[in-house]
Design brief:
By secondary structure, the protein is α/β, with parallel strands linked by helices. The chain contains 17 helices and 9 strands. It has a 6-stranded mixed beta sheet with strand order 2-1-3-7-8-9, with helices on both faces. It has a 3-stranded antiparallel beta sheet with strand order 4-5-6. The chain starts with a helix and ends in a 9-residue tail after the last helix.
Length: about 450
Amino acid sequence: MKKLLAVLFIFASAFAFGQQKRALVIGNSNYVGISSLKNPVNDASDIEAALKRLGFTVKTVLDGSYTEMENAIMNFEKSLRASKNTYGFFFYAGHGVQADGSNYLIPVRADSIRSESHLREQAVSLNTILDNLDKAGNELNIIVLDACRDNPFGWSRSAGRGLSVVSHQPSGSIIMYATAANTKADDGQGRNSPFTAHLLNNLRANGLSVYEVFEKTMGDVIRASGGKQHPEIRSSYSRASKAYLGQSPPPEPVPHPRPAPEPGPVPPPRPNPEPSPFPSAKDYFDKGCLFTQRRDWDLAIAEYNQALKLDASYAEAYYGRGMAYTYKRRFDQAIIDFNKAITLYPNYAEAYYGRGMAYTYKRRFDQAIIDFNKAITLHPNYAEAYYGRGMAYNNKRDFDRAIRDFNQAIRINPDYAEACYNRGMAYERKGNRDQANADYARARELGHGGYRLR
């Protein structure tokens, strides 16, 4: 049994290092030759400030000429090429038009754009920008276009209202349009356009993923406009729900299943099998422990299966298989195995602990607490059971009880990194940042990649 307990230790997750973040922000308001716009310079200035607070290095162009815009875009692409571990953010507010299905961003000196041929030569092609970002090869590029206003050029034949949806999107990118294709966005009456105002609110919110920032912005604009303005999001980035522009929130306090470092009441020693040329149940059980040590859960389960075929009363094999099923997130099967282990040996503290962990994963926290209570009754110095019960209380938002349990786990095992880490999360949720940071720092000292408040 000690062998199984020794090999079922789960390692702390690696610390996730922050991304490099670079942004190009352009806002054109004071046009020559076409109608001026009130908000884009304000929009760009406020987006610049919001991105800097999120840790971005920002280049901003206000009332840019064609040359200024082109040079800034080329330099932006070069900065993204420097490291694949980079998030890029391109924001444009100003006039934008479509012609023959292509989109163009208009520089402030628009008086010389008198035909579609001039447009292609003297306005910035969005397709070219997207192609350059695609070639940069960095992890993620975000393109935000608040440019969906009426076409300001009277000569245009093929141009329609607003922008068109691009036919080719760079890999690893998210494009957000202030409104749907071929429709007009409201310019608003305040300092910012309605779209940018809601985007700013969500960029300033704490702990939102990239996906949540844009999904919430879309919903906010739809509600505020009474459904008249409907932003569009096009994404080719699969990790948008797990990527953060700023500080990510603490992970949900769902525990990793770990057995006790010290055994409590366990099934009585099994007699050694008679010598035989064929593998015994214990031989298969030992191999299951070996594959568990290697974290090869499928092979571990296969070996425990063989052990149980030879000896259906092998409580430790049910427990070992139950833990392997828990690691594979097959919680219902894990609970069945823990039930069998407990039926065979009603005082099996580790089996109650394992079942409590499975119930916690299934978010059946009250049932989990009952099992952790039983494990603690059977084994009063069971640090892992206090930890597991603390995790259940953390999920129930009963942070005082969670902290008491983590305190007890740490008293029993002062080097218990995960208990320090999760106690820090409980303190953080209670608003005690100093104590939370102290616990995160201690967890990192002990080898846990703990989250730190800023």
